[in-house]
Amino acid sequence: MGLIAAGWIFVLLLGGGIALERTLTAQVESNFDEQLEYILTAMISSAEIDAFGEVNFYRALGDQRFLEPGSGLYWQVSGAGHDPWPSRSLWDRTLKLRGAAVQGEHFDSDVHFYDSAQFPGEPLRIAERTVILPGSETRWTFAVASATEQMDAQIGRVRLILIWSFAVLGLGLLGMALLQIRYGLSPLRRVRAAIHNLRTTGAGRITEPLPLEVQPLVDELNALLEHSERQADEARRHAGNLAHALKTPLTVLTNAATARAPDLEATVMRETRAMQRHVDHHLARARAVGRRAVGHARTNVRASAEAVRRAVERLHPDSRLDIAGSRTAEVAIERQDLDEMLGNLIENAAKYGGGSVFVTIDPDAESAGKPSGECLIWVEDDGPGIPEAERIRIFDRGARLDTGKPGTGLGLAIVRDVAEIYGGSVRLDTSEDLGGLLVELRLPRA
Q1: Which of 103, 122, 154 is a domain's end point?
Q2: Which stretches of the chain drop beneath a pLDDT of 50?
Q3: How far is CA 170 from CA 15, 96, 160, 253, 317, in A?
Q4: Residues 288 and 301 placed together within one structural domain of the fold
């Protein structure tokens, strides 16, 4: 920020200084030319033709320098067929003029200004004008020349004043810009100190009052800390749950192995299957939590349901699966997690139902009571359903009502846990149309 400020200050002051220098220099040169033109006009107004056809002044020019040789102020009158008539200050020199009377060019009565270097070490500024005086047909060129030393010195002083003024102004502006940057970024240093305090003291939040400009940053940082705490608590809770779930099977195996129980093989198989169920359940939760932390997802519900239907129809070819409802509904869930939830629900409906499964995506709000911001998914079957007293217990890990068919008892538990991870919910009811089980899955809309 300091380098950018310094660059812009330098560019703007340089451009402004050049423009101002040219304006003031042009003004000094214009004033110098006006003085020469004033003297030239006085010369012409004082000129007359004498009896011999030569130019004379009927009154002397007032500046004493015209009488002092090498004074730096000169005049000269030239005409075709006549010798140049110089001022005494020129002494034995004459001016090389460009006028029409000298060059034989077309007549031009305007005043002309130009620089001349004909005298070594003495640059001149010349003003000349060609006129025809009364009583003469000759075109006379009147010229006034002045050394530019005084004008150059004045221009030099102007430039020196501009350089020092703009240098001081630039340093002042740069100092103020750096002071402003330091003052403006001071809240960030306070945020850094607050973060350091979090790290060293173990505080959970930044509570120090800060300016409004950085408060959104602090709010996001506090939200990130809260999110990290939730994830850490979730990880500790799941690790504890998994350890608790594995403790009992491991104890049974240890006791059976120590006692050399005759049914050791059956005990090992039973307990390892129980441990495998627990591991699968917690791995599913861990995958869902990890994918949720990556960022905001967007998944089309109809596409996921169609993919699951094709897979389930191959496993249960005798079942009839129908999908209705919205084709554009999207939820803020990763595709793999949505496939896993719908796969468990639809497969359970096909496995334990009577052969008919009906999936409705995002039914009308009036009939479904859909809250704002949630997408509702119904999975219905024509099976025996689940008694109301068992609808809470069935979500426990390993809970099964029909043990005659293969399964782990983890499907509904995984659906509930993954839905809750994303801020959704699942509820069981009775299907009014098919008479079997109705699973109502609510997920956050994308």
Answers
A1: 154
A2: 365-366, 398-409
A3: 12, 47, 15, 84, 84
A4: no
For 211-250, write each residue's pLDDT tens digit. Answer: 788 888 888 888 888 878 877 777 777 676 677 667 777 8
Could you report how far apart the first and last alpha carbons of the chain are, in Å?
A: 40
DSSP sequence for 356-420: EEEEEES--HHHHTPPTTEEEEEEEESS----GGGTTGGGSTT--S-TTS---S-HHHHHHHHHH
Residue 307: other Cβ atoms inside 10 A:
15
d(CA 250, CA 272): 9
| Residue (of 218, 271, 222) closest to 246 by Cα position | 271
> What is the pTM assigned to this prediction?
0.49
CA distance 71 to 23: 29
Domain boundary among 105, 134, 154: 154
Domain of 334, CATH number, reads: 3.30.565.10
Per-residue tokens: 97: 């003029």
Do both 13 and 131 map to the same domain? yes
Q: What stretches of 197-293 adopt beta strand conformation (E)?
A: none
Are 252 and 237 part of one and the same domain? yes
Domain hosting 326: range is 296-444
